[in-house]
Amino acid sequence: MLPVKKMLLFFGCLLRLAHAQAQAPFIRTVNLPQPAADYHYSTLLQDSRGRMWLGAREGLLYFDGVNTFEVALPDSLARTGVSALFEYENQVWAGFQNGSIGTIIHNFEPVPGFEANNAQPFPFFRLLRWTPEEGLPAKPVTGFARDRQGALWIATYGEGLYCKTPKRVYQFNNSDDGLSGDDIYDIIEGPEGEIWAATDAGISICAMNADGAKSVSHIGSAQGLPDEIVTSLYKGQNGRVWIGTYEAGICYLDNGKGQCTPFSTGWNNGPVLNIVVFGDSAVWAGTDRNGLWQSTPSATLLQGRVDALYKDREGLLWAIAEQGKLYNANARFAYWSNALNETQAILSAADGSLWIGSRYGLFLQKNNSTSPQLHSPENVISLWQSPTGEVWCGTFGEGVVVFSPNGKRLRHYKTDKQTLENGSILSIGGDARRVWLATLSGLSALEFADKTAAPTVRHFPNALGSNYIYKVFQDSKGRVWFGTDGRGLGLFEQDSFKSITNIKGTALKSVYAIAEDAQGRLWFGTDNEGVFSWDGQEYRHFSYQDRVLHRSSVQGLEISADGLVVVAYEDGLDLIDPGHKQHVNFFKTPDGRPISPGFNALTRGSQGEVWIGIKGGLLRCAAFSEPFQRDPVPELRAVSLYGHPLNFTQNQTLDWDDNYLAFNFIGLWYTDPEAVRYRYRLDGLDRDWLVGKDHQASYPKLPPGDYTFRVQASEHGNFEEAPEVSWRFSIRPPWWTRWWFIAFAAAAVLGIALMIVRYREQRMRREAGLRRAQIEAQFETLKSQINPHFLFNSFNTLIAIIEENPVLATEYVEHLSDYFRTILHYRERDLIAVQEEIVLVENYSYLLKKRYEDAFVLALQVTPLMERRIMPLSLQILVENAVKHNIVSQKQPLRVEIYNEAENFIVVRNNISPKISPEAGTRFGLEALRRRYRLLGQAEVVVEQNEQYFTVKIPLI
After folding, report:
1. Residue 799: pLDDT band by 50, 70, 90 thresholds?
2. What is the rounded CA–CA span in Å between residue 323 and residue 304?
3. CA separation, residue 587 to residues 40, 240, 330, 593, 632 (Å)
4. Has residue 140 got a pLDDT over 90?
5. What DSSP designation does 415 have?
6. Percent helix, strand and coil across the chain, each rounded to 5?
7. pTM to 2 decimals?
8. Strand 724-731 and strand 652-654: pairing?
């Protein structure tokens, strides 16, 4: 007799199973940061780049899975209320409650008066109002759609439809165009590219050709519409249009034609406000007052009014309910709670029923009810259905019990000498002819000659090197595979056993799970080496070390109808896409519930889903006939230059000193945003990738060059096939390093060098010419001064003075000596002070005065010019020329004036009294003076002559 405690537990399980919950998804409240947490949301949209946009009564937000960022709105739209969102021509369009419409664009300038949240330096986006010439509606915008011609359609509640074409905006209404009504609840693009509008009088199907010709047709009760008040529309797969009504629930039209087919019978949940469909028939509906309804199985979730439903690219279902709160759920997974605490074995039978084995016995779930199949609480650890439909139940210590598909007990194979050597059945497999049993004493096989005869029992002790076998699996080719404890894989083929203990250099020890996919590939789950697949010729390895799997220790695996390999661990699931080795998604229960499935606690359901036995119930992994995004979508959110926003929507060429850039990026993965890791690099600078969880990267003092910033995102840390986003930019070199400047500088240096060489040559020639002129001038001066006439006259004057006044004669000799000494002293110098030249002239004048007495007059009117210079003997030559070429007598005195003109010239002027017989001369003095000044590069010597005066202006230096 069973212990009393065990019986009490058994009957307690029966009582709790009678009140077990139906399947329900993990619906979670999306916790947004302040102030977004207090907003009242009304609509949402995920655009083609993966961004999630949230429309609320208080404004418009961008949500990246963790933080929200406000979209800067014009003041006129503040707190107006967003009522519709739609992506059209790669731009997100927003409709408002007051009929306003705008498009969201990138923002690259700070918005005055805008208060950023979440440490946002400036709004990443802003709204640009749309202002067509024809005007905007004055009623709430309820939806958008795009037709086959590419026109944008706008639905309103009160003004019908608007159609935006490249030429103009047209209106469809009830009175002019035959629209079923002007209050439009919903709008979609139909199966043939036309526009379907939901109204109070059925569905209006609208179209307009390129010439502006309108057409309107209707779907109503004549087409089987159960309720003409249509409140929601949804375009599903294969052209099926799902229709939500006010009172009659949900129906659909295939390809938009024929008669409506009812989908929900006995509907009592009120108006259907929105519909979302996963796959072909997993329908979700938001109602006006009875929360969220799901079709498989039929159940109602959440509470109150559901204002919006949305299916994103990852397979998440989003809902706005309970006065604008935001929720989401992974629609792929649903949880069915029971009181079994721990499911040890699970089997999905061909008729869709579920057989559940636990340590409290065997239970059959069918038609949403659960019943026990064993009269005593046996410890059930394995289940298998034969090709004939019989269900084999393996127990711990009590052998095998066989049931019919409807739950009738047929046979019981116990431990005795004629049948089983061991009654603990760890796994069962085989076909109609031979059933393999993995026991604690090794392998046994029950061989059936026919359906009525008792089977022949054969035992294979230690046939695979281990008597502890976790899994028995017969593949589509009749081969039988065994997962052993410590001895790798076993294979029974052509009546012989074979062991596989090493695959591509990796040692196999314990194998816990075996499955086969639709392509005939075999999959093996191991205790510490991850997962292997074999296509009959080549093995592939999926491991934790390669950052492909979440863990190395696999507790079970199964193949869903959509081709994904479901790998179960203690704390979650990996979904492997065989076509993309690196595309593996990890999921865990949102409520933190451990999974910890038993080795036999995974099975494929009748609809291709995978059932997994977990703590306290079952987990259902649906197989949807549509692809979903399997990796985070990387997005470059902002680029700043010295803290100021930079337009990164196009390639940029920056100046050499614009070289401090910061990048803000995100990996959009709403399934588990906290799990996202990033890998980024700056091609042209970074030698390798940088990996981490930070959302920003900074690069100060970038040198000139061409760069490409690249970023990848992954939720499991493997980036081999991860999607990538990039942005190219260039930094110009400094202007002084560019080729044109270098060429210009080289030419300039060469030109300057040539100029210096030429200037040096010219200077040398000028100095040589000046030296020649100086020598010639000195020579001529000395010749003239040593001229016999000059000496004869000077000596005659001296003789006369000696006789008359010896003292004066002595003074005359001294002046004559000083004069000649000064000439000899100055003849080697290029320039002398003006005052020194004046002293020379005064000495020379003294000699002339002694010779001509009052017939020669020298008038000096030179202001102090001590800092200015002049060529030596230049004034003396001019005075000498004056004496030489003019009459000097008492009747015709010669007056020579020397004065300065401002500070630029010193002037020598004499009256003109030409001699009757001019004295022969070389004409060298004045011309030599001119040439010497030219060689010095100074101003020209100015010579002027009129009837009264001969004037020469000498430049001062």
Report:
1. confident
2. 9
3. 30, 31, 10, 12, 14
4. yes
5. B
6. 15, 40, 40
7. 0.76
8. parallel
* Dihedral class, residue 85 (left if φ above 0, else alpha if ψ from -120 to 50, else beta): beta
Higher pLDDT, 572 or 487: 487
184 near 157, Cβ under 8 Å?
A: yes
User: Residue 75, class by beta-carbon neighbours within 10 Å (0-12 exposed, 13-18 middle, 19+ buried)?
Assistant: exposed
Of 356, 364, 403, 410, the residue nearest 380 (C-alpha): 356
- Backbone torsion region of residue 487, taken as left when φ is above 0, otherwise alpha when ψ lies between -120 and 50, otherwise beta: alpha
Specify whether the CB–CB gap between 566 and 557 falls below 8 A.
yes
Which amino acid, 839? V
SS (H, E, C) 463-528: CCCCCCEEEEEECCCCCEEEEECCCCEEEEECCEEEEECEECCEECCCEEEEEECCCCCEEEEECC
* Tens digits of residue pLDDT in 367-383: 767 777 765 678 999 99
d(CA 813, CA 819): 10
334-362: pLDDT as tens digits: 887 765 667 899 999 999 899 999 888 89
Q: Decide: helix, strand or coil at residue 742.
A: helix
Structure tokens at 786: 């040593």
Interacting residues of 791 by C-beta distance below 8 A, sequence separation 6+? none
Cβ neighbors of 950 (< 8 A, separation 6 or more) are: 882, 909, 910, 912, 944
Closest CA to 47 of 815, 807, 790, 633: 633
- C-alpha to C-alpha distances, 585 to 548, 567, 625, 675, 717, nearest whole angstrom: 9, 10, 18, 11, 11
How are strands ordered across the β-sheet holding 905-911?
Answer: 856-861, 894-901, 905-911, 949-955, 942-945
Region of 28 please: left (phi>0), alpha (psi -120 to 50) or beta: beta
Cis peptide before 673 (omega within 30 of 0): no
Three-state secondary structure call for residue 280: coil
**Phi and psi for 743 in degrees, rounded to 5?**
-65, -45
CA angle 111, 116, 119 (to 5 degrees): 135
Cα–Cα nearest to 665, from 723, 620, 738: 723
Closest C-alpha to 143, from 203, 200, 183: 183
| CA–CA separation, 738 and 735 (whole Å) | 5
Integer Cα distance of 580 and 584 in angstroms: 8
3-class DSSP state for residue 908?
A: strand
Amino acid at position 63, single letter? F
Give the model's confidence band at 169: pLDDT under 50 very low, under 70 low, under 90 confident, else very high: very high
d(C-alpha 412, C-alpha 878), whole Å: 152
The three-state secondary structure class of 660 is coil
Cα separation of 160 and 791, whole Å?
Answer: 129
| Burial zone of 560 (CB within 10 Å; 0-12 exposed, 13-18 middle, 19+ buried) | buried
Distance, in Å, from the CA atom of 373 to the CA atom of 377, rounded to the nearest integer, reads: 10
Contact between residue 177 and residue 168 where contact means Cβ atoms under 8 Å apart:
no
- Number of DSSP helices (H) and strands (E) in the chain, helices first: 8, 75
| Placement of tokens 């469909």 in the chain | 277
Q: What is the Cα–Cα distance from 883 to 714, expressed in whole angstroms?
A: 109
Q: How far is CA 432 from CA 65, 331, 345, 383, 447, in A?
A: 52, 38, 21, 15, 9
Do residues 403 and 391 lie in contact, with contact meaning Cβ atoms separated by under 8 Å?
Answer: yes
The tokens describing 504, both together, are 């591509």
CA dihedral 415, 419, 420, 425 (to 10 degrees): -100
pLDDT tens digits, 840-863 = 888 888 888 888 888 999 999 888
Report CA-CA distances (Å) from 363 to 15, 265, 398. Answer: 13, 30, 17
Q: Which residues pair with 949 in a beta bridge?
A: 911
Report the largest interatomic distance among the alpha carbons of the chain, rounded to a whole angstrom.
184
Q: Residue 56's pLDDT is what?
A: 97
